[in-house]
TrEMBL record:
Keyword set includes DNA-binding: no
Main location: membrane
Subcellular location: Cell membrane
Alphabetical UniProt keywords: Cell inner membrane, Cell membrane, Membrane, Transmembrane, Transmembrane helix, Transport
Protein name per Swiss-Prot or TrEMBL: ABC transporter permease
Organism, as annotated: Cryobacterium levicorallinum
One function term, GO molecular function aspect: transmembrane transporter activity
GO cellular component, one term: plasma membrane
Length: 349
């Protein structure tokens, strides 16, 4: 291309018109690729809906629609935080441990069958504070000690699970006894489940943070080139720690809502959420190397996997086969997403 540009030089210099034409062509192709990814997800969603509606007449009913929204609410909340972390070029595997620790903390400080103090709103504050501590710890170890986020958050997963298990102890299951909260997540308000309204608020706030705040802009910049961010004097260290803290708070919120939904406390309340959230972010088009993607894309990815699982259940597919299908999709999505970035990710044998 350089030789072509030089060949177009005249006595007056470089032919800037030709350069602008080429640049506009590159921009058009980039815009097309940006539109093609979400459009392909929408097509996949439409195909899934069409196929499952043929196999089971209950699939397109209003009650199942509400079930899909309820099932997708907690993964949507957690996935907003996971998207921010992956946009950094990192990954957060601590989701299920944070959910367990936060959920157990919350129910033991609320009205429950074991008794104890009912702290009301303070139970939420303290439980989410536990999530913040776990998230900040992950962020500091990753950022200050340069330990890969994969290893740090995998370890933090088990730290959270250990905290939840110790809180659970050997007594009877702590059952939620607050009648106002029992079943609240699935109650319908203005046609939508309450938990889904919470997810919509979180999605809106996530989009606002990513597009309109310094944290969001620096997050995208770090994903593209942390070296440039540091050389520009931007607060890369603080932003990375803050993103891990935000992700942990959202995982903690998901853990509390899952506990409310179950009406009991359990260390494994977040079981299986990670294997919906990470594939959803990747399938949605957020690059594993960071710097490119978005929360709305992740929303499409969550709905795709939720509808797939819901349709398989209604079609009578056994749970073991459902797990196999989800695993195949996870591997295929990561291979597809990472293939074009394999040099950048330094993938080795």
């Amino acid at each position: 291309m350089v030789h072509k540009v030089l060949a177009e030089q005249g006595a007056g210099g470089i032919n800037t018109t030709a350069i602008r034409i080429r640049e506009s062509g590159i921009e058009r192709r980039a815009r097309f690729r940006g539109l093609a990814e979400p459009l392909s997800l929408l097509v996949a969603l439409a195909v899934l809906i069409g196929v499952f509606s043929l196999f089971n007449e209950r699939f397109l009913t209003a009650s199942n629609f509400q079930n899909v929204l309820t099932q997708s609410a907690i993964p949507l909340i957690v996935a907003v935080g996971a998207t921010l972390v992956i946009l950094l070029g990192s990954i957060d595997l601590s989701v299920e441990g944070v959910m367990g620790a936060t959920g157990m903390t919350w129910i033991l400080l609320s009205a429950n069958s074991r008794g104890g103090a009912d702290l009301g709103p303070w139970a939420w504050v303290i439980a989410l504070g536990v999530a913040v501590v776990l998230g900040v710890a992950s962020g500091l170890i990753f950022t200050a000690l340069k330990v890969p986020s994969f290893i740090v958050t995998l370890g933090m997963w088990y730290v959270g699970l250990g905290i939840a298990t110790m809180l659970y102890g050997t007594d009877l299951l702590p059952r939620l006894e607050d009648e106002a909260l029992s079943g609240w997540t699935s109650h319908i308000t203005l046609g939508l489940p309450n938990s889904f309204w919470v997810a919509l608020i979180v999605i809106g706030l996530g989009i606002l943070v990513l597009r309109s705040t310094r944290i969001g802009r620096v997050t995208l910049a770090i994903g593209n080139s942390e070296t440039i961010v540091r050389s520009a004097g931007l607060p890369a260290f603080r932003v990375k720690v803050a993103v891990f803290a935000i992700a942990a708070v959202l995982s903690g919120l998901g853990g509390i809502l899952a506990t409310v939904q179950l009406d009991i406390g359990s260390p494994t309340v977040g079981s299986g959420v990670l294997f919906i959230v990470i594939p959803a972010v990747v399938i949605g088009g957020t690059h594993l190397g960071g710097g490119k993607g978005g929360i709305l894309r992740t929303v499409l990815g969550v709905f795709l996997l939720t509808i797939l699982n819901n349709g398989l259940i209604l079609s009578g597919v056994e749970s073991s086969y459902q797990s196999a299908v989800t695993g195949v999709i996870l591997v295929a999505a990561i291979v597809f997403a990472a293939w074009s970035q394999r040099d950048r990710l330094r993938v080795a044998k």
